[in-house]
Inverse folding.
């Protein structure tokens, strides 16, 4: 995929707005007693749509912006989000998954990496965190909730990046049939 | 071409990871007045108004999601509270029952103490069944011959005299209540000491009558009636004196000298007996008769 300044601008806007929305509103929404965090889902969706390099760079930028905005230890979230974006991008490059539920599985994996990775890094950095059964429960709930949110978040990111994405031949074929266009056979 | 792409990809990954680690290390290494901390403070100053605006703008959305979450939480909390309420209702019912039992026992002990029976040996028994008739003429208690209960022993309850033991087995006894048609006990008014005999008022439900009271003796409504005890060694009574029987509720005069009906309301509530005391050993100063029951 070729990155253009316009695409970079959209990704930057997506990252900034995503972080602001997350910190200003979404983080205060609790589902099953656990706060919603869509940023790993956005990073994974960008990786899944743009590839490994795009995902990794977006993950780094988004993580850096979060750490700066939330006065956290700079570098921690970047370190966690880079593999998320990279991994999702590699999945696109290697498998090109077309199944509709792929974002759900990728979102769950991204959330697991984000939550567990952050916990491990903070633990290694000596930042005390209560390790208890409640924390494990919260991690599992976060993964489940984010798995459910992954599909709409992926659709949103896809809509934002649609002008820069290569047109999906499957989608084009479907549109041709459903809108009454000529089939490839009749055209031939 | 492929190798170049791979190298570029890997280099990007490694570069970003390394950059993150460098930032992390630098952030930890510097003081709170360092460059990275300064950037954070600057970002805070810039982003705070933006975040505040975003927070206000997104408040309806947040509230909507919060409302959904709150509704789910409220439902869960409601279910919990309903369950807890059931538990507490059960607890309150049990405690009220225990309080009622305690109240009955206390009143029973007071009756016994007032009648001077506290020094005698008494057996406290729980009422395990009651004749389900209008008059509740008999009850069954959970103490029998093994506890020293014998036929003919007086029984008191909360408020006053309850009856007399009529049947005894090893672990239970039957008590004939004072409202039973075959029951009779010598009695007197408490203050004026007018003697008479208390028996059930036939056809008057749970009422008693004080019989054989001459018309010229002064008995008034509200007068308290107690057992008379033994007035003559030749005619001993099984009932110690001064056990409350009831209160004069109504007086009906007839034509004859002794034709006066004095209705007595029992002091003990025969419909709500939970505990009773059986006087197994009368006080020593009381004359006792043989223990055979009266027919």
């Amino acid at each position: 995929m070729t990155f253009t300044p316009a695409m970079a601008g959209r990704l930057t806007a997506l990252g900034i707005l995503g972080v602001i929305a997350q910190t200003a509103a979404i983080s205060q929404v609790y589902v099953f007693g656990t706060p919603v965090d869509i940023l790993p889902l956005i990073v994974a969706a960008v990786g899944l749509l743009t590839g490994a390099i795009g995902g990794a760079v977006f993950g780094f930028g988004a993580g850096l912006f979060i750490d700066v905005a939330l006065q956290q230890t700079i570098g921690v979230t970047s370190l966690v989000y880079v593999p998320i974006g990279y991994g999702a991008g590699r999945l696109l490059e290697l498998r090109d998954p077309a199944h509709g539920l792929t974002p759900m599985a990728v979102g769950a994996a991204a959330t697991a990496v984000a939550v567990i990775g952050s916990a491990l890094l903070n633990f290694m950095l000596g930042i005390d965190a209560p390790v208890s059964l409640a924390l494990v429960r919260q991690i599992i709930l976060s993964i489940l909730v984010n798995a459910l949110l992954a599909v709409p978040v992926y659709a949103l990111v896809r809509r934002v990046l649609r002008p820069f994405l290569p047109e999906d031949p499957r989608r084009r074929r479907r549109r041709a049939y459903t809108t009454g266009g000529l089939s490839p056979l009749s055209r031939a | 071409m492929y190798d170049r792409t791979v190298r570029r990809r890997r280099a990007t990954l490694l570069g970003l990871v390394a950059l993150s680690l460098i930032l992390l290390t630098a952030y930890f290494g510097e003081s709170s007045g360092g460059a990275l901390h300064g950037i954070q403070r600057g970002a805070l100053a810039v982003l705070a108004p933006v975040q505040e605006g975003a927070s206000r703008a997104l408040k309806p959305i947040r509230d909507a999601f919060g409302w959904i979450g709150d509704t789910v939480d409220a439902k869960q909390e409601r279910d919990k509270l309903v369950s807890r309420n059931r538990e507490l209702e059960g607890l309150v019912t049990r405690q009220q029952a225990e309080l009622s039992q305690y109240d009955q026992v206390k009143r029973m002990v007071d009756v016994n103490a007032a009648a001077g029976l506290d020094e005698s040996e008494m057996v406290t028994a729980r009422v395990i069944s009651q004749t389900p008739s209008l008059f509740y003429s008999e009850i069954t208690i959970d103490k029998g011959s093994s506890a020293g209960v014998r036929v003919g022993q007086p029984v008191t309850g909360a408020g006053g005299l309850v009856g007399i033991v009529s049947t005894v087995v090893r672990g239970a006894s039957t008590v004939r209540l004072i409202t039973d048609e075959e029951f009779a006990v010598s009695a007197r008014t408490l203050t004026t000491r007018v003697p008479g005999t208390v028996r059930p008022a036939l056809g008057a439900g749970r009422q008693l009558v004080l019989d054989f009271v001459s018309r010229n003796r002064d008995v008034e409504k509200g007068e308290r009636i107690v057992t008379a005890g033994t007035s003559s060694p030749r005619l001993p009574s099984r009932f110690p004196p001064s056990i409350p029987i009831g209160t004069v509720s109504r007086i009906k005069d007839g034509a004859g000298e002794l034709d006066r009906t004095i209705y007595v309301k029992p002091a003990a509530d025969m419909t709500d007996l939970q505990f009773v005391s059986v006087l197994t050993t009368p006080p020593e100063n009381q004359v006792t008769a043989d223990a055979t029951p009266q027919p």
Q: What stands out?
A: The first helix of chain B runs from residue 2 to 29.
